[in-house]
Amino acid sequence: MGNVALNQTAPDFEMEDFHGSKVKLSDFRGESNLLIVLNRGFV
Questions:
Q1: Rounded to whole angstroms, how far apart are CA atoms 26 and 4?
Q2: Which ranges of the chain have pLDDT less than 70?
Q3: Among the listed residues 4, 33, 20, the one whose alpha carbon sits nearest the alpha carbon of residue 12
Q4: What's the distance, CA 39 to chain centroid?
Q5: DSSP readout, 9-23?
Q6: How far apart are CA 20 and CA 33, in angstroms?
């Protein structure tokens, strides 16, 4: 995945939510705000 420029649509991706359900970025297209937190965890 490459860089995304300002005002460019982000590429679609899929990941699991806290409940284990699959969620795609495109599921939220058209929403006002979207916050994505990617936590690598600490070992």
A1: 16
A2: 1-2, 42-43
A3: 4
A4: 12
A5: PPPP-EEE-TTS-EE
A6: 22
